[in-house]
Amino acid sequence: MTFAQAAERHLDDVYGYLSWFTGDRAAADELTGATFERALRLWHRFDPRRGSAQTWLCQVARTVALDHFRSERRRTRREELAAQPERVDEHFAEGLSADLEAALATLTAGEREVVALRVVLELDAATASRVLGISATNCTTRLNRALKKLEEALHVAA
Amino acid sequence: MSQHDLTAGDLAAQLRAARIAAPPELRERVRMIAGSEPSHARLSWFTARRALVVAVPVAAAVAASIVFTLPSHKQPQPTALSAQRTERAASPPLHGSVSKSFGAAPALAPPPSRTRAQRYGASLTLRLATATGVSNGVKRALHIASALGGYSTSVHASTRGRAASATLVLKVPRTHVQQAVTQLSALGTITGEHVDVQDIQTGLNATDRTIARLQRQLRKLRAETQTVSVRRNIATITARVERLQRQQAAAIRTARYATIDLRLATPASAAPAHHGHGPLHGLGVAFRWIGIGAVYAFALGAPLAALITLAWLAARTIRRRRENELLSRR
After folding, report:
1. Which of B38, B90, B108, B288 could be disulfide-bonded to B189 (CB atoms 3.0-4.6 Å)?
2. Interface test with B, best of A10, A14, A21, A32 (most B CBs within 10 A)
């Protein structure tokens, strides 16, 4: 598989994952581009025996997203000192009900991430845990907690 | 169905249905990025880490082989030297005139001092071809010792089949020790030689001074009124002076003679000769040093590896904690 084939096949996955993870479409757009640029540089390290291209690209995307979060946190701290930080309107996907959108907004980035990987991208526990760098059990626990929180938020909204 | 009636399955289905597709501009951008993929294909199995894992031990092995297989310039090839001496010593005929080889004394037998008292000891190991040669060698050695004014203190000889060996302890006047060693070494092929010279003049001089001091004390005491206490002191000092003089005389007597330990043996009973190194000797030495290095590396590396592991675990924990903190934000 060439890098171009992998990029074409998994672009939506990476973009979707980053959209859910960041909760910001504009940021996801930027980060997806950055992810594929980085992935191209590191493509020689990709070993199909150790995991699929989708998993590997999600791992790269996660690193890029974490860098983004760190720089965002530094920026927010600076802005908190000077003025009120800019609030990003979270919009996760098309076709979601307003209640579900609101419920999703109550999740943390870590919880949204595991929902994106396990539910939206339909990765199994082992693959998702590899992307997250945690154990499969931990990954499942995190997913259950996130779904429970979502359900509770929906119940409250109703 | 209202939202709060959603089951986990429904919720998952709804989330999945809202799967996001990348916008066309982004797709175009990623295609452009992918289009700039370098054409040369890299070997997937070849990584810098793997190359290092192979290269470092190979380099260490090669370096060790080079270091330990090259002849050292500091050591003047002892094997060649001993061979030369053996040839020279072997050249005189076993039963021929001993006086023919008098001119060349073995290098290890330094001349004894004419002015200072020395304890001179030498040991010679000679190889002879046959048991008869050993027997004749013993006779000649005793003859050499007595001819030079010496004597033998012990002679042990044994024969088993064609193998024979003999051990002699000879006392030779120190002034003739070089001559004796030269004549004895001509009895066979030298396989071992050892000389031990110890200066005892300093000790003798010190004893002389002590005796002189005690004698001065004695003269003083004898000049005094001879009380019981003085007489007792005189007796004590006199006894001490006599003891020191006896020791002095014994030391001088011992120093007058050199002790030569002579061992004669046939090849079968002789000490195993030092064989030359084979072509793989250097490799063996190199591997031995690599083994020693590995043990040291393990001894030093194990605690270091434990420390590195602990540091890595600590760093991972900190990183995960920070990551969780980062991801706990909405």
Report:
1. B90
2. A32
Share of chain B above pLDDT 90, in %: 21
Number of domains composing chain A: 1
> b/e for A6-33, b at 16 or more Cβ within 10 A?
bbeebbbbbbbbbbbbbbbbebbbbbbb
What residues of B are in contact with residue A154 (Cβ under 8 Å)? 3-4, 6, 11
Q: What is the pLDDT of residues A97-112, one digit of tens each?
A: 788 888 888 888 888 8
Listed residue (B82, B260, B86) closest to B184, CA to CA: B260
Rounded-to-10 torsion of CA B251, B253, B257, B258 = -10
- Our CA-based measurement puts residue A17 at a distance from the nearest CA of chain B, in whole angstroms, of 9
Give residue A121's domain range.
3-157
CATH of the domain at A45: 1.20.140.160
DSSP string, B198-212: EE-HHHHHHHHHHHH
CB-CB neighbours of B9 under 10 Å = 8
